[in-house]
Design brief:
The chain is built from eleven helices and 13 strands. The chain is α/β, with parallel strands linked by helices. The chain has a seven-stranded parallel sheet, with helices on both faces. Strands 6-13 form a two-stranded parallel ribbon. A two-stranded parallel sheet has the order 8-10.
């Protein structure tokens, strides 16, 4: 593993869940000379060695090449989860915005591009054993999130072919949580009027046990450490990132002291679809379908080639996240602002 010194790092989506963890980590890194955080709204937060640039990747005509010139690495994290009822809007930000970033990286002669892919890019796979990075990345076509992540995997395939001199790293993390992301994620998936204090174990006498609902979780800070390791190495390609153990109704029941109760997929999906159709729930039934089909990921490559190991178990991550929901935790950026409700 080779380490560079005095590096200049550009981070898009720097005010979001992963961005805030990564910028904080880089601001404390003696091998990093400066960080440029790119975000739609410039925050009051001012970590050391960090400057901000206000750019909307969906519509802003700002010169990304100028922003990226002189950078050693561009880390592309920017992503819009909503509006789920308008997939064309998320496509403009997530896909067309990302392609703008990729093109600017090439034009500015940036030597390294680190892209935030996801477990959501993977094709349906097993829940009984884990798959490595060679598993197909065609996503679940009915879910905009998975469709967009999978499309960008193909865009990067073409980018690597056309720009072999750029080192490209694709991070494929599991579901990412931290205490400070609780308010943002409650708004994104549960709706801004869902009260955070309702996330109390004593209010959950039983849990729905839905066939196929077995996923992986990871602390956002642990994911940020993997990104940092990739910046200071010469690795290429994709890396799975996930914590242990896998999360299912049995684990959640033990954690919350609640009894799992079997619930058919069709019943759960119908309830989600009804709430989403009435604009009461931001999370779409299409994403629910995808989650039931996501494979479990094997993280051997990240351990052996990056020397990465998560410091938090999945149980610890979820306990911290639930506490954050109850307390209305957040960060000093607009996407991550903390609120208990509203």
């Amino acid at each position: 593993m080779t380490t560079s010194t005095g590096s200049r790092i550009v981070v898009t989506g720097a005010t979001g869940n992963v961005g805030t963890s990564l910028v904080r980590l880089l601001s404390e890194d003696p091998a990093v000379e400066s960080v440029l955080g790119v975000a739609r709204r410039i925050p009051e937060w001012a970590p050391a060695k960090t400057d901000w640039s206000g750019i909307d990747l969906a519509s802003d005509q700002a010169d990304l090449v100028k922003e990226f010139e002189g950078a050693d690495t561009v880390v592309h994290l920017a992503w819009a989860f909503q509006p789920t009822h308008d997939p064309a809007a998320t496509w403009r930000t997530n896909v067309l915005g990302a392609i703008r970033v990729f093109d600017a990286v090439a034009s500015a002669d940036v030597p390294t591009l680190v892209h935030a892919s996801s477990v959501g890019a993977y094709s349906p796979g097993p829940k009984e054993h884990a798959v490595d990075e060679s598993w197909p990345t065609h996503g679940w076509p009915d879910a905009a999130y998975c469709r967009e992540k999978a499309y960008l995997e193909r865009a990067l395939d073409t980018f690597e072919r056309d720009h072999p001199g750029v080192r490209v790293v694709r991070m494929r993390p599991a579901f990412l949580f931290k205490r400070e992301s609780a308010s943002e994620q409650r708004r994104i998936f549960g709706g801004r009027f869902l009260p955070g204090p309702l996330a109390r174990p004593e209010l959950l006498p039983f849990l729905p046990d839905i066939p196929g609902l077995r996923v992986q979780a990871l602390h956002t800070d642990d994911a940020a450490k993997a990104y940092r390791l990739a910046l200071h190495s010469d690795v290429r390609g994709a890396f799975n990132l996930a914590g242990e153990p896998p999360v299912d109704a049995e684990l959640l029941g033990e954690m919350l002291d609640a009894r799992p109760v079997r619930l058919p997929r069709t019943a759960a999906r119908s309830a989600i679809a009804a709430a989403w159709g009435l604009h009461l729930l931001p999370a779409s039934p299409h994403l629910f379908d995808a989650v039931l089909r996501l494979p479990l990921m094997d993280c051997t490559r990240a351990r052996t080639e990056l020397g990465w190991r998560p410091e938090h178990t999945a149980t610890e991550v979820l306990e911290e996240f639930l506490q954050g929901m109850q307390q209305g935790a957040g960060e000093r950026t607009e996407p991550m602002r903390g609120r208990k409700v509203g």
